[in-house]
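Morning F.,

Quick status update on the modeling queue. The single chain you submitted on Monday has been processed. Sequence for confirmation:
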Amino acid sequence: MTRLRFPINRRNEHHLGGNVFYALGTENFAQVDQIGQFSSRTYGGDLRFQLTAREDVTGFAAYQKRTQDRRQTSFGFTYGVRF
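Structure tokens below.
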């Protein structure tokens, strides 16, 4: 997996940043649930906005291309609190 993180904008305690990533791998589930094995390439990234020094919101997306002409797309949002 390779990830590149970068800042976009910074004002006082509000920070906006992001990252992009690429991953390559294989998985084998043949013994556990009979779906077999596959290889995949995953591309994705996120944007993170720091609301306060202890809170942030992140939106992310990822696209995975697998063998046997299968694909998966994931996306979502997270809210983080540090204490």
